[in-house]
Predict the structure.
Amino acid sequence: MSTSQKFHTASEKIAFDTKHRNTIKFNISKYDVAVSKGMARYKNVEIAKENAAAIKADVMNNWDNYLLEFEEKISARGVEVLWAKDEHEATEYIKKILVENDAKLLVKSKSMTTEEIELNQTAESIGCESVETDLGEFIVQVAGEKPYHIVTPAMHKSKGDIAKLFNEKFNTPIDSTPEEMTEYVRQVLRKKYTQAEIGVTGANFLIADIGGVSVTENEGNALMSTAFPKVHIVIAGIEKIIPKMSQLGLFYPLLAAHGTGQQITAYNTIFTGPRKENEVDGPEKMYVILLDNGRTNVYADSEACSALTCIRCGACLNACPVYKTIGGYTYDTTYSGPIGSILTPFLRGFKDFSHLSFASSLCGKCVEVCPVKIPITDILLSNRRKAVEQNLRPKMEKLLMNGFKFISSERKVFDFLPGQMKTFGTFPLNFMVWGPKRSMPTFAKKSFSEQYIQNKNNKHI
């Protein structure tokens, strides 16, 4: 099947999975309560969002300058900056670093960019074990799955699901509490941290004026992943750049409030280089891999480029009625939900992924919650237009739309058939396009215009 067919098949299956729906509903309801409290801390959150959007717009206008400034500043402190135009180049850099350091074990903190380039598989292909240290990421790795959500990797699992998984994999008690399972994972990871040769993080922000890498987290796993290993590798998308360190005071609370409802995340660390001669802690070497992998394709599109200002808070996923219905795995891509539906066609090709831009009700909730005011619905519509212009839509859709255009463009044509015949004509859509779980609306015997004319004439009488 094509990616589009797989998407529709998976969506139809998961949309009516009651257990999945209940789990997602419960987990997102907890998020909604937390975020409402987080938003209440702002006197005027819209002003904060406008300021953040303005800074990100400035980045887009001066993207190359800020990236070069970042490279210059961080390189001066002994960090090797590597530019990767695509997944292949990034993978080759990583393999080279692992081989040079005879790495047998790698620990990594939560990072969607590493998921994007499939770092775990790359490491394991050359005999290096790669261990996820974020609790949610650890859970899905043990389950042999990918992250379900940008912020909450194991959102699709209940505590009972996780207890069963751990019982099968680690022989822990089947009735383990979340606290007991967390403690078990903590003990496992402590040993991994001290044994690993390589520590990997992503970057929430790249800070141009100081040449720093900012990582935000709630578990301390990123700090542990960089405290013991001799080598620290940062893998960051080139869109993560911000101009000044002083702007973190704006972005940290926005990211936390929209992502988890917190006032600020528990751990906020800025890495500026490997340890110096007079320091005892930290890595001996540090690499920063700046990843393009299609991001410049987004930048080149005047309608979609603002999608690069995303700070990966996940708010649009949690707000989206489509995401909450079909879940994260149906998208079959690293970035799911509304933001993923915008970015993925550019990152992985319109031919295979343009259908994602049609997976939206265009209700606008994603635009409402976005902390950097990305016009998501506008970009979804422009992506849809591009798919049509590139002849990527089904031929039957084109025929149906041309037929609808012919019928609806002239009132006399639309009113030619009585309501009963229109209802009869659209009845097959209940089983073909519209779906068996819903019913096509029944047409009135007379159209609105016919009723209007009739009522108007009756009044004159």
Notes: Residues 24 and 156 are 6 Å apart (CA to CA). The mean pLDDT is 93. The two ends are 63 Å apart (CA to CA).
